[in-house]
Specification:
The complex is a heterodimer of chains A (about 600) and B (about 250). Chain A is mainly beta and about 600 residues long. Chain A contains 5 helices and 34 strands. Among the domains of chain A are: about 150 residues, no CATH class; about 130 residues, no CATH class. Chain A is elongated. Chain B has about 250 residues and is α+β, with helices and mostly antiparallel strands. Chain B has one domain. Chain B has 7 helices and 11 strands. In chain B, strands 2, 5, 6, 7, 8, 9, 10 and 11 form an 8-stranded antiparallel beta sheet that branches. Chain B has a 3-stranded mixed beta sheet with strand order 1-3-4. Chain B is elongated, with a radius of gyration of 21 Å. Chains A and B meet through helix 3, strand 18, helix 4, strand 27 and strand 29 of A and helix 1, strand 3, strand 5, strand 6 and strand 7 of B.
Chain lengths: ~600, ~250
């Protein structure tokens, strides 16, 4: 042990003092390393720097403490005026109150430093994990750095161990390792969303993923339990979803082979509203804007994926289709309204072939400003009908039904100026060939997503081009107001730009604070939109509702509405005015997220 | 017809007011953008910016001949309930996205885009704040461990130069940066997956578990209305043109 001769007087508050003799050799060694790297956020001398201290700083702290050539103290250290430390001084945890002279360097580790006007550091001053008070009062001849980030250090005997990573970094690294490795877990979550047929469907079951050599195998065996209108263990409340997927490649280019077997409830027209919107209106107001039917069967598929979210899937399988009746699940504010009847589905066994292509070049899927989103699907079905359920046309009987159905949802997002965009959408779908569409594969142009100026599936005029029904209002309502169109075409356009409001105080204009509540700012987008569309039947031309197979009634009988709204990101409020039809009253509506 | 006319009148008035507001010069002036080399970057009729605002904000520094474009997020968690939630064990996660847009004759086009994340974690055992950045290439870069929240906030506001392609000469561009600031429970790795990948993609495809659609909707709605643990910031630079020869960063 080197004798403690380096100080003239020891501070009374010092917890531990181990002064060491240091000569000019030490000073030279330290001087050679005073050219510490200048960090990106370096300010002036002694100004605080943020970010993890670089490796050379950590190494220097470790070296100075552990070489045994410096005086090392832990806890509060005071060097009063008139005192002189002839060596380098290293203080752990501090604080260091310096009014005297240090002929070497001063290193404060996780310690604050106060410099008095009489303080004089003839070497460099390095503070890591602390602050410096009196930065301009004292005198520092050498380099002067203050790093506010603390070091994770541990004293083991006389040695100082400096940990290289933080707990946060370790945890993130663990998470990243998990992403690349194999995993298994038990899934417990809700399926799609709350609805009048199932209540809340819940997925429960194991799943795992094995990955190696560019191949990923995912398997899941999920049971479905539906809360329905009462919690009971009965066939109606149970379902399942089994899936095996083998995928080769990375996210940018891959091929996947898989198989699945399901017993689940599916939505008839899931393109129109988001799950969250459908679930919320059901749970809150007993308004369910979708229809449902049951699918039981298995499929095999192959998917090829490429860059820009492009994928092509070919799928074939056999399913048993059944109707599902609406039940009476909980609604918080039903207002005395009964649940809408769930329309009957065509029941039977269906052999299905589906081809689905997706291209997604949007810059942000949730709030796109640029790019394409195109989803195109073709489905060929061969159905052995066990129970007809043609609620809008009575031309189907027991027997076979062969059909082809296409569906296209194409969107283009254009930024025409830094704060203005013009977005376009085309939705088209329906019968491609065959005898006609099963009830659950028909379409409608109605509701908040398609034509918000018109009420959801309320027949307007004769013929009704929204739902393609020929039934009277009473019969139509009794059957659940089903979608009945063989084909639809919907065109949507919107012009949107930014707005910024500051209700209290001066609103800074350089950011977008959606629902930033303490200043009551509500920045977002204004939106002006127009929608136009209709549905029609395929058949002999008659009363403006039915058109021959090769005909498209472009702009004949189209329903059109225009509107304005304010979009705050997660929520938007709009008003739409119908331009055609007898009902001329404007309608207000709310969307969770963008319209499209 | 009268209703329709009124609607169009209102529409016209709204558009006029909004357009005037949006393109007033001071709206651009407040954008905290710095350009240290005017010979390289020329901005279109925009006076020298003055970063006047306080509170959460994004600042964009235009590239110069020697330095790349950089982004600084200041006071990200000031206001709201972030600090309270942070001390309760919910880490703060900031997802940032920077885009370089080219101004065309009719439409603006994205030239380059990149994403990165900031994580602020409170270690309740040691009572220190850890800050880390997940860079676009997936590297986790520690930004320090701090005993004071104010210091941790300073670390979060360190400038970062996202690896965006350098703009070419002779074309008009602007940068758009957005930051989604949300609380995050790191213990839920599925949630982390979702957030780090950028919201709903995995959930829609059924690969991961983001919670229920209803629950997500309610949470989002409530958090927005209450000004809670979700915040979104956006900033755009003024339009600029690179007058010198371009080079890759």
């Amino acid at each position: 042990m080197t004798p403690d001769v380096s100080t003239m007087r020891v501070a009374p508050h010092r917890v531990c003092s181990r002064a060491r003799l240091v000569g000019t050799v030490v000073a030279m060694v330290l001087a050679a390393s005073t050219l510490w790297s200048v960090p990106a956020n370096a300010q002036g001398r002694g100004e605080p720097r943020y970010g993890a201290p670089p490796g050379d700083v950590r190494a220097r702290v470790r070296a100075i403490w552990n070489t045994g050539l410096a005086r090392t103290d832990t806890g509060r250290v005071t060097i009063v005026a008139g005192d002189t430390v002839v060596s380098t001084l290293a203080v752990l945890n501090g604080p260091l109150l310096l009014a005297g002279v240090v002929r070497g360097d001063v290193i404060a580790i996780n310690a604050d430093v106060r410099l008095d006007s009489t303080a004089w550091v003839q070497g460099a001053l390095l503070v890591v994990g602390g602050s410096v008070q009196g930065r301009t009062r004292g005198r520092v001849d050498g380099d002067f750095q203050v790093w506010r980030s603390a070091l994770d250090v541990e004293l083991r005997g006389d040695s100082l161990v400096v940990e290289e990573t933080t707990s946060l970094v370790d945890r993130l690294a663990e998470w990243r390792a998990r992403q690349r490795s194999n995993w298994r877990d038990v899934l417990v979550r809700s399926a799609h969303t709350y609805n009048r047929v199932e209540g809340l469907p819940i997925y429960v079951g194991p799943r795992f993923q094995v990955e190696g050599a560019g191949t990923r195998v995912t398997a899941e065996a999920i049971g479905i339990f539906r809360t329905g209108d009462r919690l009971s263990w009965e066939r109606e409340n149970l379902g399942h979803k089994l899936r095996l997927d083998v995928r080769r490649g990375d996210d940018r280019r891959y091929v996947a082979l898989g198989a699945r077997h399901v017993d689940e409830v599916d939505a008839v027209e899931s393109w129109a509203l988001r799950d969250a919107e459908t679930g919320l209106t059901s749970l809150l107001f007993a308004r369910d804007y979708r229809d449902y039917w049951n699918r039981f069967g298995g499929h095999g598929y192959i998917t090829a994926g490429g860059p820009h979210g492009a994928s092509l899937t070919l799928e074939a399988g056999r399913e048993q289709w059944d109707s599902r009746a609406a039940r009476d699940p909980l609604a918080l504010f039903p207002g005395g309204r009964p649940w809408r009847v769930n329309p009957d589905a065509l029941e039977g066994t269906a052999d299905l072939f589906t081809a689905r292509a997706v291209i997604d070049t949007r810059n942000d899927p949730e709030r796109p400003l640029d790019g394409w989103y195109v989803r195109a699907e073709y489905e060929r079905g061969d159905v052995r009908v066990s129970r007809g359920a043609d609620t809008t046309r009575l031309d189907l009987t027991l027997g076979g039904l062969v059909y082809g159905r296409f569906f296209l949802d194409a969107r283009r997002y254009n930024r025409v100026a830094p704060n203005t965009s013009v977005n376009l959408r085309v939705v088209a779908g329906g019968l491609a060939h065959g005898d006609g569409l099963p009830a659950q594969r028909r379409l409608s142009v109605s509701g908040v997503d398609a034509l918000p100026g018109y009420a959801f599936r309320r027949p307007l005029g004769t013929p009704d081009v929204g739902t393609c029904t020929r039934l009277g209002p009473a019969d139509f309502t009794a059957q659940g107001r089903p979608a009945g169109c063989d084909r639809i075409l919907l065109l949507q356009a919107e012009w949107a730009g930014d707005f910024r409001l500051g209700l209290f105080g001066r609103a800074p204009r350089n950011d977008d604070r959606r629902w930033y509540a303490d200043g009551l700012r509500a920045d977002g987008r204004w939106v002006v939109f127009v929608n136009s569309g209709r549905g029609w039947l395929v058949g002999p031309r008659d009363d403006g509702l039915s058109f021959p197979r090769g005909t498209t009634p472009l702009f004949r009988g189209f329903r059109t509405d225009v509107g304005v709204g304010l979009d705050f990101g997660a929520i938007g409020a709009y008003i739409a005015q119908p331009l055609t039809g007898d009902d001329a009253a404007p309608r207000a509506f709310v969307r969770l997220g963008r319209r499209f | 017809m009268r209703r329709v006319s009124l609607l169009w009148l209102a529409l016209g008035a709204l558009h006029g007011a909004i357009t005037r507001h949006a393109w007033r010069p001071e709206a651009s002036r407040a954008v905290a953008v710095t350009a240290s080399s005017p010979r390289v970057i020329s901005r279109a009729a925009v006076p020298q910016p003055e970063p006047v605002s306080t509170g959460p904000r994004l600042e964009i520094t235009l590239p110069t001949a020697t330095l790349p474009m950089s982004v600084r997020l200041r006071d990200a968690i000031d206001g709201g309930r972030f600090e309270e939630l942070l001390r309760s064990g919910f880490d703060v996660r900031v997802h940032l996205n920077a885009e370089l847009w080219k101004i065309g004759r009719v439409f603006n086009d994205i030239v380059a885009s990149t994403d990165w994340d900031l994580i602020l974690h409170f270690d309740q055992f040691d009572e220190v704040y850890d800050v880390a950045r997940i860079e676009p290439d997936g590297r986790v870069v520690p930004l320090g461990t701090y005993r004071r929240l104010a210091d941790a906030k300073q670390a979060m506001s360190l400038a970062f130069a996202p690896p965006l392609r350098r703009p070419a000469a002779g074309t008009r561009y602007y940068y758009a940066v957005r930051a989604d600031i949300e609380t995050l429970d790191l213990k839920d790795l599925d949630e982390l997956t979702r957030w780090l990948r950028g919201e709903l993609g995995p959930a829609v495809q059924g690969r991961k578990n983001p919670g229920t659609a209803v629950g997500r909707g309610v949470r989002t709605l409530v958090s927005r209305v209450m000004g809670g643990e979700v915040r979104r910031l956006e900033a755009r630079s003024p339009r600029f043109t690179v007058s010198g020869s371009s080079s890759q960063p």
